[in-house]
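Feature request, filed as a ticket because there's no other form

It would be nice if the structure record came with a short human-readable summary line next to the tokens. Right now we just get the raw output. Example of a typical job, pasted below so the devs can see what we mean:
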Amino acid sequence: MKSIRIGLLACLLPTLWLSACSPDQNWREVTLEGTAFKVQLPCKPDRAKRSVVMNNMPAQLQVVGCESSGSMLAFMTVELQTGADANALMEGWQKVTLENMRADTVGTPVQQQVWHRPGQLPMKASLRLQAKGFSANGQAVNIDAVWGAVADGDRVRLIHAVVYAPKISPDLANTLFEGLRP
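Raw output as currently delivered:
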């Protein structure tokens, strides 16, 4: 009987050890090119840059993101031109995000609260929100997202972190949002 327990334990320990080291939850610090901003992601991120127009102003959007445990996590940042209205741009970004996932068609109200982290600028549009909607392929999806702004030299940098999933783990979202550092 004792040898069976030892044999079972010998089989289970490597399995438990490997699951604890699962690549899906291998948190790592990621630095965004050209910034001092750092984010924690639970998986190896893909990176992208693209030119966008925000309120009729050209901007360079940087994105890092990955998939982990059935969730899509992303962090985005854009440096604003001098004189740009950061609150208006964040409000527009929030509206476009909710429109793209058709959150208004679900009938569930969007939940939102003020979101301020150390090092962030105190902006009215700095929010954390949760909503239900649909992915691009029509599947039901939940979102937990934050928006904020930080000083970057003499300019302002907007930040946005988001988790999309059929069911969002609060621990996953909280770890992502708490790991954002200017």
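Something like this underneath would help us a lot:
The first strand starts at residue 28 and ends at 31.
The domain at 22-178 is CATH 3.40.1000 (Protein Transport Mog1p; Chain A).
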